[in-house]
Amino acid sequence: MCNSAASVRHPYAVGETPQAYREPEETGEAQAADGGEGGDGARRRRKGTYPPLPEPLPVPVIDNHTHFDFSEGPAVSLGDALDAAEAAGVRGAVQVGTDLASSRFTAEVVEQDARLLGAVALHPNDAPLLAGAGTLDDALEEIERLAAGPRIRALGETGLDYFRTGEGGRGSQLTSFRRHIDIAKRLGKALQIHDRDAHDDVVATLLADGAPDRVVLHCFSGDAGLARICNEQGWYMSFAGTVTFRNAENLREALLVADPSLVLTETDAPFLTPHPFRGRPNAAYLVPYTVRAMAGFLEADLDSLCARLTANTEAVYGTWDRPGEPGKHRPVAGVADHT
Ligand SMILES: [Zn+2]
């Protein structure tokens, strides 16, 4: 069964890149500036172009981690980006801040479009820089002020990153992570965790300090063992395009182990574009490639998986529609476990 037609408001052709995401030369508005067709210039442009619009999902889902303020291609307006996403069956998103500028941006745009909720934080790789400059405390105070907004539903992305930050920066990174945990608990917000090569210390810190009620491991990068810990603790696992990568067998094993009521999906756009478009820029309208792959790995019914993902996402962040705007989006129906 496919009831996608009713949810699609914008007539982009499946298999074509939405207009707003096309480079000028693709739309015939500009001449190729370098190289001829088939030359290095053309190859570079192809690599940098956005992938085509997928077949829309039969039941709308939500991208729970994306960065509309980071652009790897043409500057796309927020409304166009959300329209393209909606046409693909992605009816909303969590816009995520990583520093003061992007957290301020987040706080502003969540008030402009009902399809957006927000998360604000200082990225773990920024914490040592801010601490070194003596501005970490002030920055955290501003994050807490921004986090109080009614449409900011999470502190994130925060956490630990041992891939980019060396030993010397880990103390301030941990301090910043613990402060975000504390703010999330005091404000009753969810926590979106960035965990890169730091699984053990992320888990230990959450257990030692006491985790907020709703914890999301964004771009889940653990194995089945970490998925079991998340199941025990009731922590959500958000699967990104990485789960489709050929060499990501550990993520697929984790997905199979994960409690279906704790699974979310995201793009982390413009990064981590799903297979077969790895290396090209990512965007919220590309979520269906990841969700269809997840349904395949799980041997799950796609409608049920989509409904489950949306229900899980709203269990973490609350609902997207503003009061007074009933019926803008279709209700979630047919929620069922995908195992
Ligand atoms: Zn991110």
Polypeptide structure, described:
The structure is a single chain. The two termini are 19 Å apart. This protein has one domain (61-317): Alpha-Beta Barrel (TIM Barrel). Strands 1-2-3-4-5-6-7-8 form an eight-stranded parallel beta sheet. The protein is globular and about 50 Å long. The longest helix is centred in the middle third of the chain and has 18 residues, at 170-187. The chain is 37% helix and 13% strand. The protein is built from eleven helices and eight strands. The protein has helices at 40-48, 78-87, 100-109, 127-133, 136-147, 170-187, 199-209, 224-233, 249-257, 287-298, 302-317, and strands at residues 61-66, 90-96, 116-120, 152-161, 190-196, 215-217, 236-239, 263-265. The chain binds zinc ion (ZN). Zinc ion is lined by residues 65, 67, 96, 157, 268.
Topology:
Elements: H1 40-48, E1 61-66, H2 78-87, E2 90-96, H3 100-109, E3 116-120, H4 127-133, H5 136-147, E4 152-161, H6 170-187, E5 190-196, H7 199-209, E6 215-217, H8 224-233, E7 236-239, H9 249-257, E8 263-265, H10 287-298, H11 302-317
Parallel strand pairs: 1-2, 2-3, 3-4, 4-5, 5-6, 6-7, 7-8
Helix pairs in contact: 3-5, 5-6, 8-9
The chain binds zinc ion (ZN).
Shape: globular
Question: Spatial order of the strands in the main sheet?
Answer: 1-2-3-4-5-6-7-8
CATH architecture: Alpha-Beta Barrel
Q: Unreliable runs, pLDDT <50, ≥5 residues?
A: 1-8, 29-39, 323-339
Number of domains: 1
Order of helices and strands: HEHEHEHHEHEHEHEHEHH
Whole-Å distance between the termini? 19 Å
Number of helices: 11
* CATH class category name: Alpha Beta
Q: What's the CATH superfamily, by name?
A: Metal-dependent hydrolases
Which fold name corresponds to the CATH topology? TIM Barrel
Bound molecules: zinc ion
Strand content: 5-15%
Helix content: 25-40%
How many individual β-strands?
A: 8
